[in-house]
Write a structure and sequence with these properties.
Structural class: alpha+beta
Strand order of the largest sheet: 1-24-3-20-21
Strand content: 25-35%
Largest sheet: 5 strands, antiparallel
């Protein structure tokens, strides 16, 4: 704040010090509020830290909740040059003999003649025309002329016209005969065969094709009826697809998808490769160049293996010279993988269009690399399980250390943690500890091999060489690796059930059979009561937990009984089995196994629930306390601002009063100096 007067000019007192001293005293409530807010913030930070650690703990517990996650296996090949293998959850231990007879291959074609340079152009040198009226048999009658017959002229731009192609009256002509008549006339006028009959390799149909004599021809072919009646198959422009000189296409089919690549008279061999590869609708053909024999050869390779993925060069659609199917050599045929597993099939082969198989050995991926015979071993992998248990212990103990630091007392520094005295935080550990030390819900001693986590090596408090508890490890979780290894050897599935068992259970009578349950089904013992009528139909079904007194109805669907949602038995499915003795009531004890991984998950989920969990509730309280402190701080700051203004104005007024008195003193001094004492003269 700005000074309202000169401090102590007339009084000689440093009033700014007096203001600062008074303000320091008045600021004490504000300081206490700031300390309170900082304390609430520190507590909230501690809770946020615990939330983060509990999230890690929850994630680790989540990985231990399912047998499918815990039951890991490793698949290995005795000869990785023949095949490699990997296993996923659910793979069954065993050894499998695998014979690879042949690998799946892609289809591959090479342009045999090649071109001198990659920069050699491949564009069309001549105009072409393809008649679109195909014929199944080029030697069968294609059309029959009218009584007037027909005479045609075929013209390729500035070349000599192919005139006088005469089709006799009322005569049937095959496609090959028409081609011969055209060639007779083209030989007569220009000395070359203009017509050919092309076969479509996909459909097997034949088509009439005409080609200009030289590259100098300009424009596309035109056909003109010069006498007689028009022949429907030849007369209309729509009957032909025509390409002018200097343009053309390279056509191919792959996976039943046909593509036509347009080229011009300046398209090079390298350009053609790029046009094929960059075609947005390329169905899966890769083009490349191979240098061999003083020439560069176009190579076409399918990207997918298997006999269903073939390349076909389309002679009808290809109009560039020297790139018909006969100009290519198939260097590698498309073929399927052929494999035999464990002697099956004995006289045949399992075929796949890929060298990677996921369905010949359950939950094992096999990748073939060469023909030959080898074996695949599928073995149990307990390393992941042990590592998961070790991580669980480490994360839990880290949580213990943090809670002790926040809620305990440090003897060395003689200070308490920020959460000291908060019993809800220490009870948090009690809940998690009970989830590990208590008997696991749904497991029965004498029936199930293991019923408590301590039986597979999880215990609290390490012991020294003499078997005595170590004081600094009290409250800490420990894993006896030898005990875990022994338990896994003794009953592997029993260990998995104890840790992550869900969806398993048992009934004590044959009349009520356990079918299935869900992760959300509460583990433990249930009493079930089922009423059968005289014909064996279920008329009523009730259920309750052992610890409960009230019965609840179950859904009845024939002989299937289901627990209702929002109850402990939700998603529990049982099967009722009538014994044929008439009407009676069956009473059963049903156990639903949960596994301590599921117990811990449920407990940590309850703790971390943002609405009802202890941490969420505490953080909400801290947030409210910080908001209240902030409002009080703002009010105190406004009061202090007013107080400081008041003090500064007060001392400024004092200085002003002293200044007035000082000026009045000078006047009095002058007056007193002019007054003569009685009995003295003015000369004196």
């Amino acid at each position: 704040m700005a000074d309202l007067g000169l401090s102590g000019v007339f009084s000689g007192i440093d009033t700014s010090v007096m203001v600062a001293s008074a303000m320091a005293y008045n600021r004490l409530p504000l300081n206490r509020l700031n300390m309170q807010k900082a304390e609430w913030q520190a507590k909230d930070n501690a809770m946020a830290d615990l939330e983060s650690r509990l999230a890690f703990f929850k994630a680790e517990v989540d990985s231990l909740r399912s047998d499918a996650v815990l039951e890991n296996t490793i698949a290995s090949s005795l000869d990785t040059t023949i095949l490699t293998a990997s296993a996923s959850g659910g793979a069954i231990e065993g050894t499998h003999e695998v014979i690879i007879n042949q690998l799946a291959q892609t289809n591959r074609f090479v342009h045999d003649t090649g071109l001198a340079e990659t920069t050699t152009t491949v564009g069309v040198a001549k105009s072409t025309a393809l008649n679109l009226n195909g014929a199944v048999d080029p030697d069968a009658t294609w059309f029959t002329t009218s009584a007037n017959g027909a005479t045609y002229t075929f013209d390729f731009g500035d070349e000599n016209d192919i005139t006088g192609v005469v089709l006799n009256a009322s005569t049937g002509y095959s496609m090959n005969q028409v081609a011969s008549l055209i060639n007779v006339q083209s030989q007569a006028v220009s000395g070359y065969d203009a017509a050919t009959v092309e076969v479509d390799g996909q459909t097997g149909k034949s088509y009439l094709s005409l080609t200009a004599q030289t590259g100098a021809a300009e424009g596309a072919m035109t056909q003109t009826l010069t006498a007689g009646d028009a022949v429907d198959e030849l007369n209309d422009a729509a009957d032909w697809t025509k390409t002018a000189a200097g343009t053309g296409t390279f056509a191919y089919t792959y996976d039943s998808v046909s593509r036509s690549i347009s080229v011009s008279d300046d398209t090079t061999l390298a350009d053609l490769v790029e046009l094929i590869n960059n075609d947005a609708q390329n169905p899966g053909v890769s083009a490349s160049l191979l240098e061999y024999g003083s020439a560069y050869h176009l190579v076409l390779a399918g990207k997918d293996t298997g006999t269903s993925h073939n390349i076909t060069v389309d002679n009808l659609g290809t109009t560039i010279e020297g790139f018909d199917s006969t100009d290519f050599i198939e260097t590698q045929a498309a073929q399927d993988l052929q494999v035999r597993v464990d002697g099956y099939p004995p006289a045949d082969w399992i075929t796949r269009d890929s060298n990677t198989m996921t369905d010949v050995i359950p939950n094992v991926t096999v990748t073939a690399r060469a023909a030959g015979t080898t074996s695949i071993n599928v073995n149990r992998d307990t390393n992941a399980l042990q590592l998961g248990m070790e991580n669980l212990v480490e994360i839990y103990n880290g949580l213990v250390d943090k809670i002790n630091a926040y809620a305990g007392y440090n003897d060395a520094s003689e200070t308490g943690g920020i959460l000291q005295g908060d019993s809800s935080i220490t009870r948090l550990l009690d809940s998690l500890r009970a989830g590990i030390t208590s008997a696991v819900p749904g497991f029965l001693s004498g029936t199930d091999t293991y019923t408590m986590a301590s039986e597979i090596g999880l215990e609290f408090g390490k012991r020294d060489a003499n078997g005595l508890p170590m004081f600094d490890e009290i409250g800490k979780l420990a894993l006896d690796k030898d005990a875990l290894a022994s338990a896994l050897t003794n009953d592997y599935q029993g260990v998995l059930n104890l840790i992550g068992g869900a969806g398993t259970g048992a009934s004590d009578i044959d009349d009520v059979q356990f079918s299935s349950s869900h992760d959300s089904t509460e583990g433990g013992n249930y009493n079930v009561r089922i009423d059968f009528d005289a014909s064996g139909e279920v008329t009523a079904a009730r259920i309750k937990k052992d610890s409960e007194s009230e019965w609840r109805d179950m859904t009845i669907d024939g002989d299937t009984l289901s627990g209702l949602a929002d109850n402990p038995e939700q998603f529990l499915n049982l099967t009722a089995v009538w014994d044929g003795s008439g009407a009676y009531t069956a009473n059963a004890d049903v156990r639903v196994r949960q596994g301590f991984g599921n117990v811990l998950y449920d407990r940590v989920s309850a703790i971390t629930d943002t609405a009802t969990g202890v941490l969420g509730v505490k953080r909400e309280q801290y947030s409210d306390a910080m908001d209240a402190a902030e409002k009080n701080i703002e009010r105190q700051e406004r009061l202090l601002e007013t107080k400081q203004i008041y003090l500064e104005e007060k001392y400024a007024r004092l200085e002003a009063a002293l200044a007035r008195l000082d000026s009045q003193r000078a006047v009095f001094d002058a007056v007193f100096a002019s007054v003569r004492p009685i009995g003295t003269s003015s000369e004196e």
